[in-house]
Design brief:
The chain is an all-beta fold. The chain has one helix and 22 strands. A four-stranded antiparallel beta sheet has the order 3-22-21-20.
Length: 326
Amino acid sequence: MKYFIYLLVLMVVSGASTTEVHAQASPRPGQPPSDILAQLAAISPGYPKVFRFRRGRYRLPAGGHFQGIQSDTSGRFLTLSASSDSVAYCIEADLNRGKLVGVSMLGGAPLRHAGGIQRWGHYLAVGIEDNHLRTRSEVLICKTGSGTGGWLQPVHRIRRTGEYERATAGAVALAAVSDTFVLVVGSWHSASLDVYLSNGVAPEDPHCRFSLRTSWKLGQARRDAWSDTAYASYQNLNLLPGADGRLWLVGFAREEGRHLMDVFELRLQAGLAESERLVKVMRREFVPRRSDFSAGAGLHLRPDGSLGVWSCHHHKGIVEYFGSSQ
């Protein structure tokens, strides 16, 4: 379904000029919700539907745990990212068959830690990091092919190095606005958010480039316009472009036993200080049965435009789905 949104993005790195991005028929995974905040508020916070899958013939690397969860539009094929003692990887589960159907190894030590993920159409973004030194990470943009064994194919790589914890990539979010991809990379505990924009070329094209455009830091944030001043250590981040041109960032976390979904407006228009780019508008609390938001949770954009939330267990083949109450 074609839709039209307007997003004014400030190009703040290296003296770049302001760029206007007009969205036309972007590769969305489903129809744009008519009112994103209303759809998020309509997700039932309790009594999720429970699904299970078997590992079967697959033996997963030792150590670590599941870190992020996403699905295709249908909700049949799930992708879960995971860390281990030696390698970062993702698994794919077919819920119709109740079993794993693929494992993709993404990076070996020291990049053994895969964090929060987001799938957008036929692409999936995942960060892999050195969780020991915490000074190096890579963000992978992968093509997906549900139902095939080695179904994740990395087609673009962003390398990050720097100071302790600042250069990590514990949670990443990806969405398309027209032919431009917006990528948000959360550092350790999501204490800083780096926003990258693509150059309008498909990620698998050798000429594709992602450029850092702006950064937001928790320690410098202005919170006077927030719905409340709380900010969590988000395990997963997801982006949602709205039909009205606004861009929403959704964070999932568990704090003090509470499973939280926080919603922010990510404001990229010209003239704003970096400290004002994130504005909190909503907090919701969920009640899982067997899953845990500190393991992984993520949005599901259904073909009809409604939204749901997936969550997973740290280690077991148990996932839960919180659907819309509408």
